[in-house]
Amino acid sequence: MAASLQSAAGFFVGSRPAEWSPLEEEVTALYDQHRGPLLRYLGSLRVSAADGEEIVQEVFLALFRHLRQNKSRANLRGWIFAVAHNLALKNRAARLRHAEVDAPGEYRDPGPDPEQLAAGNQRQARLLAVVRALPEQDRCCLSLRAEGFRYREIAQIVGISLGSVANALERSLSRLSRACPEGAERT
Amino acid sequence: MRERNPHLPNADLIRLADGECGPAESAQARAHLESCWKCRSRLQELESAIHDFMQAAPELPELPSPDPARAVFRARLSQLAAEAPPPRWNAFWRGVPALAAAAVAIATILITFGGTVNADGPKPRTSLTPGETRPVSLAEVCAVPEPDPEQDNETARQIPVEMQRQVFAAYGMDPAQAGAYEVDYLITPELGGAHTVRNLWPQPYSARWNARVKDRLEHRLHQLVCQGKVNLATAQHDIAKDWIGAYRKYVTPSSPR
Question: CB-CB: which of B52, B81, B228 is closest to A21?
Answer without folding.
Answer: B81
